Amino acid sequence: MSEDDGIDWSLTTWEGSRRAQLRDAMKLTLTEKWLAVEEMADWARATIASRRERGLPYIDPYTGERVSGTAVREEPPTDAGPS
User: Fold this and answer.
1) Helix, strand, coil shares of the chain as percentages rounded to 5?
2) Domain boundaries, the chain
């Protein structure tokens, strides 16, 4: 493997990756950004519906509370604080 293999190694760090994502997002038009938000919302609703149908726990998007699933046996949370 040569030194000049065409990889921009600055993008392989957390900071470099984040900057690249921001640069890409800044290139989108308002319509493209709005479409992306709608697609993410559709995916989130479908995921919640799927988990609800399968009896798995999920986070209620309207209350932010965790809804226990019926297909999974879960231990109730303990009220004991840190010792």
Assistant:
1) 50, 5, 45
2) 12-67
